[in-house]
Design goal:
By secondary structure, the protein is mainly beta. The protein contains five helices and 18 strands. The strands form five sheets. The protein has a six-stranded mixed sheet. A five-stranded mixed sheet has the order 6-18-17-13-14, with no helix packed on it. The radius of gyration is 17 Å and the shape is globular.
Length: 231
């Protein structure tokens, strides 16, 4: 009794604030694109050839809103930031043509793909390195009517006021329409899905007490602090 038809308390649904609105954006799934800027591919020791994009997911309850403090992740001594442009979808489907892909975008935001770098790689699945508690800080979603579709613009992350990542969205290997189209070959995309589109070069470690600020031209900034290790 007392759980509104469920045998235990129902988990809280993930959502993000929307710029200029009282209503929030409900998050159904979180998709991520790996290695989608040439300079980042090269700094990670990979080839800059235009290979098919790498897709992975994060759990929806890994979302952390701007202004929050997140714990230094467990089971890592090399906790990294990866700043990314976020697409939020209002509709979807399978096998979406590239020329129709942006019709499904509700808006855009700033996100960080927090990563246990020392666990990533070695032929192991990326999930344990990427998909953990508080691993997906996201700023507010700006509706496309306000931002327009973002094809270019500065993308920058600072740590304690010092620029660590500083690039341009136009340098994406796989464009936003291509990402949506290719991802929809593998999954039926739906309203409420968000897609982190890849990080530029300059990824690196954080420590307790650091303040991260992510900015992309035309969007609300994202600010996150790193707290004590999780227990």
């Amino acid at each position: 009794m007392g759980h509104e038809g469920f045998v235990i308390e129902r988990p809280k649904a993930a959502s993000l604030p929307v710029v200029g609105k009282d209503e929030r954006f409900p998050v159904r799934r979180i998709y991520c694109v790996g290695r989608n800027y040439v300079a980042h591919v090269e700094e990670m020791g990979g080839s800059a050839d235009r290979d098919p994009p790498i897709f992975f997911q994060k759990p929806t309850d890994s979302i952390v809103e701007s202004g929050s403090t997140i714990a230094y992740a467990t089971m890592t001594k090399d906790f990294h930031y990866e700043l990314e442009l976020v697409m939020a979808l209002k509709s979807g489907g399978y096998n979406i043509p590239e020329d129709k892909a942006l019709d499904h975008v509700y808006g855009y935001g700033v996100g960080i793909d927090m990563t246990r770098r020392d666990i990533q790689g070695g032929g192991r699945p990326w999930e344990i390195a990427k998909s953990f508690d508080e691993s997906c800080p996201c700023g507010p979603i700006t509706p496309v009517e306000q931002s327009g579709h973002i094809e270019k613009g500065n993308i920058k992350l600072t740590v304690n006021g010092e620029a660590r990542q500083d690039s341009d969205v136009s340098l994406l290997i796989w464009s936003l329409p291509e990402i949506i189209s290719k991802l929809s070959e593998f999954y039926e995309l739906k309203a409420g899905d968000i897609i982190l589109t890849g990080t530029p070069h300059g990824v690196g470690p954080v420590k307790t007490g650091d303040e991260l600020v992510g900015t992309i031209d035309g969007l609300e900034p994202l600010t996150v602090k790193i707290g004590d290790p999780a227990k």
